[in-house]
Amino acid sequence: MKFWDRLFCYFPLMMTVATVAALGVFAQWPSGWSVLLVIFVLYLLPPMVQRIMFRWAPLQLGVSAIDGKLFSSWLASHNIQAFYDALPQLEALLRVIPGFYSMWLRLWGAQIGYGVEWPVRMDVLDRGLIEIGNRVVFAREVELAAHVRKKTEGGGSRVLVRGVRVGGYAFIGAGARIGPGAHVPSNANVPERAVVDVNQNFGDVVRHPEPAEAEFALS
C-alpha cells in the first residue's frame, strides 16, 4: 500500500482525535469561537480535505483497480467520508434543519436543486457525485451510491465509479436503491424498494459506457 493510501486510511481516526480536541477546547473555554471550531471540524474540514485531494489527484470515473500499486483517489475519498458512515447522526442532524443538508452536500461538490426533501434516515455515499434536481422528494431509507466494488483474484479489488442523477420533481420511494451511473428522469415515481441499476435510465434499458461495467450490476 502506498504512503498516501495508508495515510488516508487513518483519516477517520484523525477526525476522531480532532473532534475530541475541539470538544475539549469548548469544554475548557466555552464561547462562540469554540462552537465554530467544533462545527468546522465536524462538518467543514472533511469536504475541504477532499476538494484539495481531488485537485492533486482527480477522481477517475469508470472502472479502476485498487491493488495498492497506484494511489486511488476514490479510496481516499471513501476514507474521508467514513467518519459520517460511522456516525450517521451527524448527517441526520443536518437533515432536520431545512436547507442545511443540501448546502453541506454542495460543499462536497454535489449539484443540488432547491426545495429537496430529505428524510432523517437515508444513505448518501460518494457525496460529491450526486446531481439532484429541484423539489425531489426522498422517502425513508433510500440509498444513493455512486460506486460498486468487486473483489478480484490476488487480494485486490475493482471499483466502478459514476455519478447518480435524479431529475427535478421526482419521487423516490422508501428503501429504493439508486446505483452508479443511474438516472431518474424528471417527474418520475420510483416505487418503494425498487433498484435503479448501474447505468440504468429508470424505466428504460441499461446502457453501459464500457462493456466492463456490466459485471457491476446490482441485481
Describe this structure in words.
The chain is α/β, with parallel strands linked by helices. It has one domain. Helices cover 37% and strands 18% of the residues. The strands form four sheets. The chain has a four-stranded parallel β-sheet with strand order 2-4-9-12, covered by helices on one side. It has a four-stranded parallel β-sheet with strand order 3-6-11-14, with no helix packed on it. The chain has a three-stranded antiparallel β-sheet with strand order 1-8-7, with no helix packed on it. The mean pLDDT is 92. The protein contains six helices and 14 strands.
Total strand count, please? 14
Give the class from helix and strand content and strand pairing.
Answer: alpha/beta
Distance between the termini: 32 Å
Largest sheet: 4 strands, parallel
What's the number of domains?
A: 1
Write out key terms for the chains shown.
globular, alpha/beta, 219 residues, 14 strands, 37% helix, 4-stranded parallel β-sheet, single chain, 6 helices
Q: How would you sum up this structure in a few lines?
A:
The protein has 219 residues and is α/β, with parallel strands linked by helices. The protein has one domain (3-216).
